[in-house]
Amino acid sequence: MFAYIKGIVQEKEAINSIVHRLVLESHDFGLEIQISQHTSANLPEPGAQAQIYTVFTIKETECLLFGFATKEEKDLFFLLTSVSGIGPKLALALLGTLAPQQLAEAIVEENASLIAQAPGVGAKVAQRIILELKTKIETWQHENILESNYTGSVAKQSSLVDEEARAVLASLGYSPSEINHALSLIRKESQTNDTEGLVRESLKLLGAGNISPSTP
User: Could you say which of 37, 105, 133, 172 is the most buried, measured as most Cβ atoms within 10 Å of its Cβ?
Assistant: First the structure.
């Protein structure tokens, strides 16, 4: 129904560890939109203008509007909800834990343990996502050029370094969402490809408050 909406951010807050709430004012209407933690972290603060890619759903008891910071995130939402047993809320949990590129790579590389970091996603669900989406994600990646500074063998090496950095940051008490968001930002802006460097840059972001803390 709505491909995207432009408006002024009025409110954004965490409802729980999975769903965040956005109120976007557009043409004198205040639209309440459910978003992932990843989208919330990438939106400007209240008072600024934003464009949100949207999906409108109708159920027997409610109508819901879901929003995404990028078209890639919206595409993955559609793909995830095509998997048996994956509803909108669980899709938001996945998208809130891993950035689109991270999630796509985890599915293609069959990294079930990384996918299972999302709240409510266990090992069996992660395996089902890989089974049903791997081929679709590979096709989607081929058709869509994702922002990436590394491909092929370099991507595999980066994945190993990311795993080591995740383990270090997790031992310091940071949540999977905080860690993955920090790594996603660093991958977009930096060529750092060693564990020590990734941890150091992640701690700068996390310590500066640039990554929103997860809500229990």
Answer: 37
- Cβ-based burial of 10 (10 A; exposed 0-12, middle 13-18, buried ≥19): middle
The model's pTM: 0.73
Query: What DSSP letter does each residue of the chain carry, written as one string?
Result: --SEEEEEEEEEEESSSS-EEEEEEETTEEEEEEE-HHHHHHSPPTTSEEEEEEEEEE-SS-EEEEEESSHHHHHHHHHHHTSTT--HHHHHHHHHHS-HHHHHHHHHTT-HHHHTTSTT--HHHHHHHHHHHHHHHHHHHHHS----S--HHHHHHHHHHHHHHHHHHHHTT--HHHHHHHHHHHHHH----SHHHHHHHHHHHHHTT-SPPPP-
Cα-based torsion angle of the residue sequence 5, 38, 60, 62 in order, rounded to the nearest 10 degrees: -60
**CA 115, CA 95: separation in Å to the nearest integer?**
10
First CA to last CA distance, the chain: 33
Last residue of a domain, one of 71, 92, 116: 71
| pLDDT tens for each residue of 44-63 | 999 999 999 999 988 878 89
Token couple for 83: 């998997």
**At residue 140, does pLDDT exceed 60?**
yes
pLDDT, position 208: 57
Tell me which residue range forms the domain holding 14. Answer: 4-71
In a domain? residue 105? no
> Looking at the domain assignment, is residue 141 inside a domain?
no
Q: Is the residue at 214 inside a domain?
A: no
